[in-house]
């Protein structure tokens, strides 16, 4: 690889997700020169990926260009590249871009490189399951859903049709619950209207979870409500059960305490059961002497510095601190805390304090669960709250406007504007989603 030499800046931010953008906005407004390096050009709103996969929203609506968001700040320099190393004592970062290797000097480094799927040591599952972590993951799953319904409509083999219309979602956290609920809704409110001969009853959606409750992060009344609502909508919820094997056409379920596994067939299996820190967390750990947990997350200091370094910070999903959840508010508040420290607005060494404003998940149309401190809401009120919060946090007026229009079309009507029947969908592992021409909208 060509060595393109070195330049310097005051602050380097790595990533373009929630933590990185929150830090970048603070530095940008303060006029501090910084370089933001990310391996993707977009700021991805991951909580709505399942709506891209189910045709409600387009990728552009949840993934505006990070370059466009920061364009109005002359002190912000956005670079597309993959950060691969750090020389902590020399205060230098190494990144690869356009086939060249660059070195960039900094005074402060803020890392927010997030997490990826974890298969708990069964990495071979990645080849036979669908994931929901990136825009391309969502597009692949969307194509697969369309393919399954189209082929089920035309095949003359009833067994094959049954398998095509069977979906297994592994992991009943918020992502699994939202996706399972949405696939079932899609069957009844969209495909039943547009494909003759297929009804919602022909479509099996199974949500399988190792714990004894759906949405284990909530527990109690909210978990019970989630399970009951999913079942009422026709989703099968299987608890206390691990998936021990997966291939292209099915999975083996093993209930806790049972000797033998049971084979379940399905053409689409989605894995949403765990996360582990992205590779850059491991690099930082090695270069700074910082410990990591079992998921590879950096055990950062209370002020979000890494290892013995006062000039290197890490925030969000790549870190572990005080059992804070891997959620966007933790990343955003961490990003702001670190930016304030770098700017000298917060004294060095100040511990990060997370303000928990609550969490929420949508189950299906008009049903959600919300927890704000000790207040627990379910049903329609929680759903309206979910709608309002997601509208506020989507980046860019245009994206908010289009998303609201799409939600009205999908939730009140029967529209799924982002299924592309004209394309030739491909089976798992063979789609190059980069080739697609999804609208990419710009949020200024
Ligand atoms: C499907 C799904 C649903 C979710 N739903 C919710 C929800 O409802 N509510 C909630 O609060 N949270 C939710 N989350 C979690 C939330 O999205 C994360 O907590 C949040 O994105 C973490 O932000 P982050 O900045 O740490 O990392 P990310 O947002 O993941 O950003 C990481 C960034 O780092 C970049 N990167 C990685 N490695 C490198 C490298 N070596 N060099 C350069 N760039 C790199 C990536 O391209 C990316 O831009 C969900 C997550 C998923 C996947």
Q: Would you mind describing this structure in some detail?
A:
The chain has 444 residues and is α/β, with parallel strands linked by helices. The strands form 6 sheets. The protein has a 5-stranded parallel sheet, with helices on one face. A 4-stranded mixed sheet has the order 1-7-6-5. The protein starts with a strand and ends in a 32-residue tail after the last helix. The chain is built from 13 helices and 21 strands. It folds into 2 domains: 11-117 and 276-343, FAD/NAD(P)-binding domain (3-Layer(bba) Sandwich); 123-273, FAD/NAD(P)-binding domain (3-Layer(bba) Sandwich). It has helices spanning 18-30, 49-53, 59-62, 66-69, 125-128, 135-154, 158-164, 174-194, 220-232, 279-288, 328-342, 379-393, 397-412, and strands spanning 2-8, 11-14, 34-38, 76-80, 82-87, 92-97, 100-105, 108-111, 115-117, 166-170, 204-208, 236-238, 241-247, 250-255, 262-265, 268-271, 275-277, 312-314, 359-364, 367-372, 375-378. Residues 430-444 have low confidence and may be disordered. The structure holds flavin-adenine dinucleotide. The site of flavin-adenine dinucleotide (FAD) has 33 residues, from helix 1, strand 3, strand 5, helix 8 and helix 11. Residues 14-20, 37-40, 46-47, 49, 82-83, 112-114, 132-133, 174-175, 278, 280, 316-318, 326-329, 331 line the site of flavin-adenine dinucleotide. Belongs to the NADH dehydrogenase family. It is an enzyme of class 1 (oxidoreductase). The chain crosses the membrane at residues 377-397.
């Amino acid at each position: 690889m060509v060595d393109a030499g070195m330049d310097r800046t005051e602050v380097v931010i790595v990533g373009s997700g929630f933590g990185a953008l929150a830090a970048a906005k603070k530095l940008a407004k303060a006029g501090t020169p910084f370089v933001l390096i990310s391996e993707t050009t977009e700021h991805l709103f991951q909580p709505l990926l399942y709506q891209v996969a189910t045709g409600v929203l387009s990728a552009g609506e949840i993934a505006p260009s990070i370059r466009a968001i920061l364009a109005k700040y002359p002190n912000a320099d956005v670079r597309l590249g993959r950060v691969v190393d750090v020389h902590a004592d020399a205060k230098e970062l190494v990144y690869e871009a356009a086939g060249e290797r660059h070195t960039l000097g900094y005074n402060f480094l803020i890392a927010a490189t997030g997490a990826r799927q974890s298969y708990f040591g069964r990495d071979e599952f990645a080849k036979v399951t669908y994931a929901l972590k990136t825009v391309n993951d969502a597009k692949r799953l969307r194509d697969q859903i369309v393919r399954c319904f189209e082929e089920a409509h035309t095949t003359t083999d009833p067994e094959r049709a049954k398998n095509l219309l069977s979906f297994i979602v592994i992991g009943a956290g918020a992502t699994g619950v939202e996706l399972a609920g949405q696939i079932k809704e899609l069957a009844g409110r969209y495909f039943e209207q547009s494909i003759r001969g297929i009804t919602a009853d022909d479509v099996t959606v199974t949500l399988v979870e190792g714990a004894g409750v759906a949405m284990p992060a909530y527990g109690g009344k909210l978990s019970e409500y989630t399970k009951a609502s999913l079942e009422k909508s026709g989703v099968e919820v299987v608890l206390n059960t691990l998936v021990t094997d997966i291939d292209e056409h099915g999975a083996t379920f093993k209930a806790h305490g049972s000797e033998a596994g049971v084979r379940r067939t399905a053409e689409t299996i989605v894995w949403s059961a765990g996360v582990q820190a992205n590779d850059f967390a491991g690099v930082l750990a090695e270069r700074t002497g910082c410990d990591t947990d079992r998921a590879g997350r950096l055990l950062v200091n209370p002020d979000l510095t890494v290892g013995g370094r006062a000039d290197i910070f890490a925030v969000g999903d790549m870190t572990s601190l005080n059992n804070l959840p891997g959620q966007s508010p933790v990343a955003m508040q961490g990003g702001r805390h670190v930016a304030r420290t770098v700017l000298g607005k917060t004294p060095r060494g100040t511990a990060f304090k997370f303000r928990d404003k609550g969490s929420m998940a949508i189950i299906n149309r008009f049903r959600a669960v919300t927890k704000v401190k000790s207040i627990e809401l379910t049903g329609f009120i929680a759903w309206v709250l979910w709608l309002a919060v997601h509208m506020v946090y989507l980046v860019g007026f245009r994206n908010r406007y289009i998303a609201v229009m799409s939600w009205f079309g999908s939730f009140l009507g029967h529209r799924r504007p982002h299924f592309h029947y004209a394309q030739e969908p491909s089976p798992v592992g063979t789609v190059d989603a980069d080739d697609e021409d999804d609208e990419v909208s710009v949020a200024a």
